[in-house]
Amino acid sequence: MRVVLKGIHRVKRKLANGETKVHFYAWRGGPAIEAKPGSPEFVREYNDAHASLRQPRAGTFMTIIAQYKTAPEFTGLATSTRRAYLAYIKLIEEEFGDLPVAALADRRVRGEFKTWRDSFADTPRKADYAWTTLARVMSFAKDRGIIATNPCERGGRLYVADRKDKIWTEQDIAAVLAVASSEIQLALILALWSGQRQGDLLRLPWSAYESPYIRLRQSKGGRRVAMPAGAPLRILLDGTNRRGPLILTNTLGRPWTSDGFRTSWGKACERAGIEGLTFHDLRGTAVVRLAIAGASVPQIAAVTGHSLKDVEAILDAHYLGRDIQLAEAAVLKLEARTKL
């Protein structure tokens, strides 16, 4: 039986006598494997090298990371969140895995961490995610009494999102509905009328809908939301064939994976000629639409599950600014109440 060993690094070197010898390493930059390729000893050396890589040295930052990955603070996260964290944890391990725990008490270590974060400055969002992950691991270590202070607190952000103009217009919505499959159409209308996040909508069961209400618990923050489904959404839901326990399914009637939905959504937007808008922007668009319709901040928050502060922030800075439709609605209300 042939065993395939991943990551083997081969280096050819010419000897003094003119012969060429191939040296094998467990991975690029890893320890050399002295045994004969293909032999049981070769496989054993390879496995031993990788086993030692997985075993954190006592007293190093890697031991903190290993504890964090088995703690409820990590295991209790959503699957997609854990997957995202692991990608950045790997970067942290590669850079700081051998850092002595004692060095975390040195005030200069914050500068080292900041320099590492800034090495991703060309991709500010990646830099911020990397820093956030590092800060969360440090927070875990502080809470467990492993370190006295968190050197990554209040690190600031490099990425500044300006979503002021990222609102789905009626024309944008109509363009996608004209070319999208019925499955994508349902997702769009559900997001537009509920203002919920993609992950929560992909997991939304039919049992959450009892006409005319939709009840759910948001995965982020655990906020419970109960909202009436608007007539267009209610009509669509009532006319949808229930092909499983979840409301949103793919063309095969199976639950969407996050990657599968993202791909199908992207293709629909591409066919519709939509650029610069995301599915998440429908959440902010829902807030704006409710505001334009005359809903108050508390009323909007009751529908979308935002905090009052977040709704105000969306309407004030990130999305609306000085939206002409809101101004028109306000003037119409004033005209209805006074003649002067």
Automatic annotation (TrEMBL):
It comes from the Bacteria. Signal peptide: none annotated. InterPro entries: DNA_brk_join_enz, Integrase-like_cat_sf, Integrase_catalytic, Integrase_recombinase_N, Tyrosine_recombinase_XerCD. The keyword Flavoprotein does not apply. The keyword Acyltransferase does not apply. One of its GO terms (biological process) is DNA integration. SUPFAM superfamilies: DNA breaking-rejoining enzymes (SSF56349). Keywords: DNA integration, DNA recombination, DNA-binding. One of its GO terms (molecular function) is DNA binding. Residues 163-332 form the Tyr recombinase domain. It holds the Pfam family Phage_integrase. Belongs to the 'phage' integrase family. This is Phage integrase family protein. It comes from Bradyrhizobium shewense.
